[in-house]
Design goal:
Layout: E1 16-17, E2 24-25, H1 28-34, H2 43-50, H3 53-60, H4 65-91, H5 96-106, H6 119-142
Antiparallel strand pairs: 1-2
Helix pairs in contact: 4-5
Length: 149
């Protein structure tokens, strides 16, 4: 049984020198963020730095998984930000594509659109409306007024 395995990487934001050994530990996050991949499809990164997907999946299922989830979220934001920057730069041109890019930006096409409310949301809203109506009716009765419907 192995008592101690020497770390190959650090989970810190930047590279780190281990004070006990003087060894430079590259930041796994920094390396991960440098790759051009879609979060959850990190094949090249896994192959080059961890020996393959099996080790990566084990890391994702371990305590390190919370870090990886944060990296994936940050990378997703980075990809969207770069895409928006590209659209903004395209919008300044004099082509039909530029016009479409400008229209997309002016219509706030980048903002998330909300879909239909879920059944649970509808039920919660209905309960809330019923409670509000009961409260209004109670207040009107207390003030000896009648509601107009």
């Amino acid at each position: 049984m192995v008592d101690h395995i020497e770390p190959m990487y650090t989970l810190k934001e930047e590279d780190f020198v281990d004070p006990s050994t003087g060894k430079l530990l590259p930041s796994l996050k920094k390396i991960y963020m440098e790759y051009n991949h879609i979060p959850e499809y990190e094949y090249e990164f896994c192959k080059e730095h961890l020996g393959g997907l099996i080790h990566w999946r084990k890391l994702c299922g371990s305590q390190v998984g919370t870090y990886i989830a944060q990296w994936r979220e940050e990378l997703s934001v980075k990809i969207k930000a770069n895409a928006m920057k590209s659209i903004i730069l395209t919008a300044y041109g004099d082509t039909a594509v530029s016009l479409q890019a400008a229209k997309y930006l002016s219509d706030s096409g980048y903002q998330m659109k909300r879909g239909r409310p879920s059944k649970a949301e509808k039920e919660a809203k209905l309960k809330e409306d019923v409670q509000v109506n009961k409260q209004i009716e109670e207040d009107l009765r207390r003030m000896q007024l009648k509601s107009v419907k």
